[in-house]
From TrEMBL:
InterPro entries: FAD/NAD-bd_sf, GMC_OxRdtase, GMC_OxRdtase_N, GMC_OxRtase_C. Belongs to the GMC oxidoreductase family. Its EC number is 1.1.99.1. Residues 251-265 form the Glucose-methanol-choline oxidoreductase N-terminal domain. Keywords: FAD, Flavoprotein, Oxidoreductase. This is Choline dehydrogenase. It comes from Colwellia psychrerythraea (Vibrio psychroerythus). The keyword NADP does not apply. Transmembrane segments: none annotated.
Length: 534
């Protein structure tokens, strides 16, 4: 018998396991469907290029065919290892915009305004560069500036400035808008995942049990109170119990999946999949929001200063691997996504509505298509999409994949925004600082041809890997809300959700840092309830 069972050792789950077990009287069991985080591809920052297009530490989900993407299936890589997506992502440390959290609060979620969540961002953060009212240098999550970054980033930033964007060193500080070098969750030349920051240092705690390769099958209920978890390991189902709470931290896909498999969700859908109903909750799996993303790439002559498949590039990377192995320095410390910008595509928006991510290499179909040679690429992302999708069960078998439907471009506003952003991005990539290296577009596109641009966007755009909002936080008066402002699931007892799925609206930026923040805040709320129960 444990006090708490946490399902999912991702960005929030690792934080929860560490913070709850700081109290030696609290026992925690942490379940993870993936394996340990001992792969070199995890710890070497540039190893993301090997994991993203493959099933290495990766669920590698697909969406159902997307009408807005000309019938294509989208690709949804998600971390399948200790640390979850924080062990497989591009390590960009981005919090979103102040307005995001003030909006969460305005929607009725007390305690989630920017001023109230900022202390939790700071609590985690161990920033090597910034130390001020917005940042902390003492937290476990290592945050650093780029090392061994390509000189093409200087060209990108100069081009952004040529196109009217100001330079902004700290997009997580006073103001988000501007161009910059990204800060990364990299420490001492290695990825600093949530597992490395929070879990690994505390694995010896006698009150913490971590079980890997454990696929959660369902939450165990007594009436409408959660009392444990059934999981499968080595083809055997195992029941474990807790006397305080079950905490779901399986992410935007995993958490609604576990709820629905357990009989908590839309009644008609569960009946259709022959799942016995425990509690009707219409919003489970609804409200899926994700950052739709479009990439443009320019070829350049072979260069040691970009990543690429060539004899010269291969030789350079081989040397860099030895350097990283011996010194934890060099090109292997690159997160590949190195510089970027936030900007507004139109006037009178509450916050920047578009994000740029610059990569000194060729980016094509999540690195699943091999292109020989060298280049530079840039992503344009719709930050606050109006399109919302849904996650559903395909069957009542926990091992079956989900039916994931982001409904990309279901709302035409997203398409119009990304078109405006793409034009700005192209102007930046064709600005004079790139004149000395720029060759042709990887996917030629006549400038000014609106129809061709729209078709290229529909043909090649896809996720920026930030699905969220499928267990929406909100009041009981909101029929789509799944959890309340304390992340307790409406209508049942002994269970919370703590991960990116609880976001009522998707944040204006990458989701890893916000998910770690959610884990920190959830831990404080859980500990407060624990103390009150004594």
């Amino acid at each position: 018998m444990f006090n708490y069972i946490i399902v999912g050792a991702g960005s929030a789950g690792c934080v929860l396991a560490a913070r709850l077990t700081e109290n030696p009287n609290i026992s925690v069991c942490l379940l993870e469907a993936g394996g340990p985080d001992n792969s070199v591809f995890i710890h070497a920052p540039a190893g993301v290029a090997a994991m993203l297009p493959t099933k290495i530490n990766n669920w590698a989900f697909e969406t159902i065919p997307q009408q807005g993407l000309n019938g294509r299936k989208g690709y949804q890589p998600r971390g399948k290892t200790l640390g979850g997506c924080s062990s497989t992502n591009a390590m960009l440390y981005v919090r979103g915009n102040k307005w995001d959290y003030d909006n969460w609060s305005a929607l009725g979620n007390n305690g989630w305004s920017y001023e109230e969540v900022l202390p939790y961002f700071k609590k985690s953060e161990g920033n090597e560069y910034f130390s001020n009212q917005y940042h902390n240098q003492d937290g476990p999550l290592g945050v650093s500036n780029a090392t061994a970054a390509s000189n093409t980033n200087d060209m990108f930033i100069a081009s952004c400035q040529e196109q009217g964007l100001k330079h902004n060193d700290d997009y997580n500080g006073v103001e988000q808008e501007g161009c910059f070098m990204y800060q990364r969750t990299v420490k001492n030349g290695e990825r600093c995942s949530a597992a490395k920051a929070f879990l690994t240092p505390n694995l010896s705690r006698p009150n913490l049990t971590v079980i890997t390769h454990a696929l959660t099958e369902k939450v165990l209920f007594e009436g409408k109170k959660a009392v444990g978890i059934r999981y499968k390991k080595d083809k055997q189902s195992v029941d474990i119990h807790c006397d305080k709470e079950v905490i779901l931290s399986g992410g935007a896909f995993g958490s609604p999946q576990v709820l629905m498999l357990s009989g908590v969700g839309p009644k008609e859908h569960l009946q259709d999949k022959q799942v016995p109903l425990v509690h009707h909750l219409a919003g489970v799996g609804q409200n899926l929001q994700d950052h739709i993303d479009y990439v443009q790439t320019y070829r350049v002559a072979s260069s040691d200063d970009t990543f690429g498949l060539s004899l010269k590039g291969g030789t350079s990377m081989l040397k860099s691997m030895f350097e990283w192995k011996n010194k934890r320095s060099g090109k292997v410390t690159s997160t590949l996504a190195e510089s970027g910008a936030f900007f507004s595509t139109q006037e009178n928006v509450v916050a920047p509505d578009a994000q740029l991510v610059f990569v000194p290499g060729i980016v094509d179909d999540h690195a699943r298509t091999v292109n020989f040679g060298h280049g530079y690429s840039c992503h344009i992302t719709v930050l606050r999409p109006d399109s919302t999708g849904v996650v559903k069960l395909k069957s009542n078998n926990p091992e079956d994949p989900l039916a994931i439907d982001p409904k990309f471009f279901d709302n035409e506003k997203d398409l119009e925004l990304i078109k405006r952003g793409a034009k700005k991005m192209r102007a930046i990539l064709e600005s004079t600082p790139f004149d000395g290296i720029r060759q042709k577009l990887l996917f030629p596109l006549e400038k000014g041809d609106e129809l061709a641009l729209e078709q290229d966007i529909r043909n090649r755009s896809d996720t920026q890997y930030h699905p969220a909002c499928t267990c929406k936080m909100g009041s009981e008066n909101d029929v789509m809300a799944v959890v309340d402002h304390e992340l307790k699931v409406h209508g049942i007892k002994g269970i919370r959700v703590a991960d990116a799925s609880i976001m009522p609206k998707l944040v204006s930026g990458n989701t890893n840092a916000p998910t770690i923040m959610i884990g920190e805040k959830a831990a404080d709320m859980i500990l407060a309830d624990y103390e009150a129960s004594l």
